[in-house]
Write a structure and sequence with these properties.
Layout (H helix, E strand, L loop, with lengths): L10 H4 L6 H36 L5 H9 L3 H17 L2 H11 L7 H16 L13 H28 L5 H22 L2 H4 L11 H9 L7 E4 L5 E5 L4 E6 H6 L2 H16 L2 H24 L3 H7 L8 H16 L1 H21 L3 H11 L7 H7 L5 H15 L1
Parallel strand pairs: 1-3
Antiparallel strand pairs: 2-3
Bound molecules: zinc ion.
Zinc ion (ZN) binds next to helix 12 and helix 16.
Length: 406
């Protein structure tokens, strides 16, 4: 193996508090186990909850029953994700990719070339999760945009890999870590802008007799009405923003299937997210967690041959540290999903309250009954699997808010 695969220069000083190979394995499996236990409990509680709900609502229609049963399918999907992580660790997928890069057609290339080769393959594999949204891209234009996002995601990973290799040449670990954190923050902000790409290709929402109240409300709230778009084949609406711009997307199915007052109530909910800066807080949260994992990469992963060995490496390629960091980051995010879901549910209820305070409570309840299929859920199930509270909880909270306002 090439001798240029060295660790950062001050590795010896950090050795005292680095994990052993066994500890690194435990750090890998702990979030998997936590997630498995939580998901098993959540699905058991949800099953019991649905049985009791069906008994207390004997007149429930077939469509509603099937919709409720479908909520249980999130469990096998969750198990599959955990299985994939476990399998990738056991079968040493990351070291195998590195081996492929060193034995393939660039075997005699420089470290930079082999590192880029590794990153392209690794990133092409993990970015496949973008295709989870393929059902939303049901036109040629939508598919092309999805492939463009996939391609840009790989380009972003390669850029970060090259930065890490270049920064590794710095004498001080602290300086290298600082610059890499900064580069990651800038890359994430650019990547966040990339999320606007599909929206730019949507038509702007036209103001007519049905959408007039919605436009009036937007102007009342000083929202630029040129930034309201019509979503294609979408029975929902959402608000999105970056540091530079903000947009609201109203689905075409939502407009067709609901009264103007219900659609305006949904607009009021989206303006509630804007009022409370929910998207900005989310973006800062992402930047913070990435910075934390970058620090872990520089001070625990990079100087530790034992962490590399736990994954099945017999050398310590610098570029692979990004893949190891990403694996730990994803695993711990998975285990902490209930916390992020609870926060997300809190901001949804707060946006509902905002709409109710603006006088759209009843209309929002009607819209929720039309567009949401998540009727009811046990609290643990909702914390584990749902970013939005069930209709039952949302409607009860809106009614409570309306009663307080009387
Ligand atoms: Zn919302």
């Amino acid at each position: 193996m090439a001798t240029d695969l060295s660790l950062l220069p001050d590795a010896a000083a950090a050795k005292r508090w680095l994990p052993s190979k066994d500890q690194a394995k435990k750090i890998f499996y702990a979030p998997l186990l936590v997630s498995l236990v939580i998901q098993c409990c959540a699905i058991a509680f949800q099953t019991a909850h649905l049985i009791m709900y069906a008994r207390s609502n004997p007149t429930m229609g077939t469509r509603e029953s099937v919709g409720m049963m479908l909520t249980l399918t999130l469990f096998p999907a969750g198990l599959l994700t955990l299985g994939c992580y476990s399998m990738s660790f056991k079968k040493q997928w990351i070291p195998r990719l590195w081996k492929r890069a060193n034995e393939g057609r660039f075997a005699n290339g420089s470290l930079l070339v082999r590192s880029v080769d590794f990153t392209v393959f690794w990133s092409a594999l993990i970015s496949l999760n973008l295709f989870n949204y393929i059902h939303l891209a049901m036109s040629i234009k939508g598919l092309l945009l999805l492939f463009a996002e996939y391609f840009l995601s790989i380009v972003g990973s390669v850029f970060l890999a090259i930065c890490l290799l270049k920064l590794n040449a710095k004498k001080s670990r602290h300086v290298a870590c600082f610059w890499f954190c900064l580069v990651t923050i800038v890359t994430t902000l650019v990547d966040w802008e990339r999320g606007f790409l599909p929206i730019e290709f949507l038509p702007r929402l036209k103001e007519d007799k049905n959408t007039k109240p919605l436009f009036k409300l937007a102007r009342q709230d000083y929202f630029d009405t040129k930034q309201i778009y019509e979503g294609e084949r979408l029975n929902n609406a959402f608000y999105t923003r970056s540091l530079l711009r903000e947009k609201i997307i109203i689905g075409d199915y939502l407009l067709e299937g609901n009264t103007p007052s219900s659609v305006t109530a949904v607009m009021a909910h989206e303006l509630g997210h804007r009022f409370n800066n929910d998207l900005t807080v989310r973006l800062y949260g992402i930047l913070l967690s990435q910075t934390f994992w970058n620090v872990v990469m520089f001070y625990i992963i990079l100087p530790s041959p034992e962490v590399y060995a736990a994954f099945g490496f017999d050398t310590e390629p610098i570029v692979a540290a990004i893949a190891l960091r990403e694996t730990f980051h994803s695993l711990y995010s998975l285990a902490l999903t209930p916390l992020s879901n609870l926060w997300s549910q809190h901001v949804e209820l707060r946006a509902d309250r905002f709409a109710a305070e603006m006088g759209y409570g009843e209309s929002l309840i009607k819209a929720l009954e039309e567009i949401s299929f998540h009727k009811t859920g046990n609290w643990l199930y909702e914390a584990v699997y749902c970013s939005h509270p069930s209709n039952e909880r949302r409607i009860a909270a809106i009614r409570k808010q309306m009663a307080q306002m009387r």
